[in-house]
Each structure stands twice: as structure tokens, then as C-alpha cells.
């Protein structure tokens, strides 16, 4: 087990280092001069050169990369080309908002997908199983931003039960925070819950066809009892894989949903940076998103060994 953890940790660190090189190189080859963008097209060459020296963009790319990546462990992402403010505090502040949204949506997706997926598998020959499968297919076809618009139309515009946009920190007003979190979390969570329901159904169906489950049924256990006692752990392995992918999808999907609901998260910060051509800010936000995706994959790899003892023995 320890050897497997060390191996996965090494893979994670190497992947993170390669990702930092790719992100920096991608931003470096984009057209445009940050100094000229900051000063405008009418700026003199002397002013542009002075701004380049202040930004540090006149140095060799290798030096710029080493300076940038050296500050990442301490949260120093540099300073914005547009506002001059530190990027690290902005990213940290917006990251908290995005994490509230993504984690709440993931919990909602699990609460929807696990029971419905099990019912759809155990009763796949009944009307209830067919109905769950049909609803999940419809949910898969609906993008999260469209689900958000529909939820706003129904619950905010017509019924007036919930606010349509905005954000309140939980420490400021917990009640209002929850009211403003409901619709964006539902728009992300319900769509991902529909996707996850399909995978849970497939994984549970595969387990129900195994010999050990049929033996448990022959000994007198019902379908749900045999599944709970002997099948769920095996069915969890492919589901955990999909959960890791869905967390990454939620991070990307949050970019659009934050715009729909005017939420000041990482997605809004990223789009603002792109609109202002603040490349260093965009670079920092993209690196944080990449780190989050790699970290999720790292945790999923470790969970494999926890769920499946055969992997520990093989290691």
C-alpha cells in the first residue's frame, strides 16, 4: 500500500510540473504584448519598455517561468497586469466561492444518482426502472446552463421563491447564502446526477449478474439485501472513476453557471481576465483548475486501493 501511495504521489508531482510548463508555454505564445495592452495603442515605445521592465516580461522566458513557478507553493501568482493587485488573494477568495458551488452540486448529484441508479438496475424489467432510465436520459441531454435558465424562470421569475442571481458569503448571512446557493447548485447537480445515474445503473447491473450475488439470492437474501452485503463495494470501483471525472466536469461547468447566476467565483475571474487580456491572471486561474483536476485524479487512484484489496496485494 505504501509503495502504491509513493508511486501515485510521484506521478501526481510529475504531472503537476509538466502541466505548469504547458500552461506557461500556452500563455507565452499567445499574441499580444501585456505592456501595450495595459497602456493602450497610443503609448510611446519608451513607456511600453518601462512597463515591460515593471511587469518583468522583458526577461527570458525561462527566467519568467522559474520566477512564476517558484512563487506558486507560497500562493504568489504575481501581480495583475491590469489592476496591479496581487493575483494570489483574488484566486483564493474566488476559489472558496467555486468550491461551495461545486461540492454542494456533487453532494446533490450523489443524493440523486445513488438511490435512483440502484432502483433502475434492480428493477430494470419494471416500469419504475424504465421511468428512471428515461428521466436520466433526458437529464443527460440538458446542459447545465440551460437547466439554470429554466430553474430561474420557474422558481425565481414565476414563483418568486428564490433569488435569480448574486452571492452572499456564508459568514455574512447563512440564510441568504443558502437561498442564493440553491439554484446554481441544482443546475449543476441535477445534470451531473443524471449522468451519474446511468453509470450507477450499469455498474450495479454488472454486479447483479455475478455468481456470488446469485448465490446470495439462492440462500434467501432479497435483491437489495444481496446487493448491499456483497455487491456495492465492487460496484463502487467504476462509480468512483466517474466521480473523479465529474468533479473535473463540475469545475469546468461552474465557469458558465457562475456567469448565468452572477456568482463571483473562479469562472467569473477567468472570463474577466480573458476579456481584459490579463494573461498572468488567466495563467494563475488555469493553473489552479489544473491542480484541482490532478488532485481529484490522485485521490481517486488512492481510493482504488482502499476499495479493492486485490490492488493492494498486486502492489
From TrEMBL:
Topology in the lipid bilayer: Multi-pass membrane protein
Keyword tRNA processing: no
Classification of source organism: Bacteria, Bacillati, Actinomycetota, Actinomycetes, Motilibacterales
Name the UniProt record assigns to this protein: ABC transporter permease
Record GO cellular component, one term: plasma membrane
Localization of this protein: Cell membrane
Transmembrane residue ranges: 9-30, 99-122, 134-161, 181-200, 235-261, 281-307
GO function term, MF aspect, one: dipeptide transmembrane transporter activity
Major place of residence: membrane
Xref: Pfam families: BPD_transp_1 (PF00528), BPD_transp_1_N (PF19300)
PANTHER family: DIPEPTIDE TRANSPORT SYSTEM PERMEASE PROTEIN DPPB-RELATED
